[in-house]
Amino acid sequence: MSGEVVLVVLIIIGLIGRSPIISTAACVLLIVKLVHLQRFLPTIERRGLELGLLFLTFSVLVPFASERITTKDMLSVVTSWPGILALTGGAIATYVNGKGLEMLRLDPQLIVGLVVGSIFGIVFLRGIPVGPLMAAGITAILFKLFSFIAGRFF
C-alpha cells in the first residue's frame, strides 16, 4: 500500500476517532509528499520527537516562567506525599524511557508495533501520544514480565 493511501486512511481514522492530532499529523505529511518535499521526511523523522518534546516541555515550564508556581509550591514537592510521589513518578518514568531506548536500539523494527499501538490508543482509548520512548519502555517492562512468567511455568 502506498504511503499516500496509508496517510489518507490515518486521516479518516483520526476524524472518525475524533483525534485531531492524528488527522493533522497525517494531513501535514500527506501535503509534504504531494508537494514533493519527501527529502524533508528523514529530518522530520529524526528531529520530530525532539521538537515534540521541546514543545511539551515549554507547556510544562510556562507556570514557572509566568511565576504562577511559588517557592511555597516548590517546597511542598519535597514536604508532601503527593509531591514526593510526583518526584518518584518522574524518576521512574525517565528510567522506563531509558529502558525503552535500549530496547529500540536492540530491536528497531519494534517501532512499527509501537506506532500502530499508539494510533490504536489515541483513536480508540482516547489516549495522548507522549512518544515512542514511553511506549517502548512499557514494552520492555511487559517483555521482562512475560519472559519471567514464561521462565517460571514453561
From TrEMBL:
InterPro entries: UPF0756_TM. It is a multi-pass membrane protein. The chain crosses the membrane at residues 6-36, 48-66, 78-98, 110-128, 134-153. Keywords: Cell membrane, Membrane, Transmembrane, Transmembrane helix. GO terms for cellular component: plasma membrane. It is found in: Cell membrane. It comes from the Bacteria. PANTHER family: UPF0756 MEMBRANE PROTEIN YEAL (PTHR38452:SF1). Belongs to the UPF0756 family. This is UPF0756 membrane protein A8990_12854. It comes from Paenibacillus taihuensis.
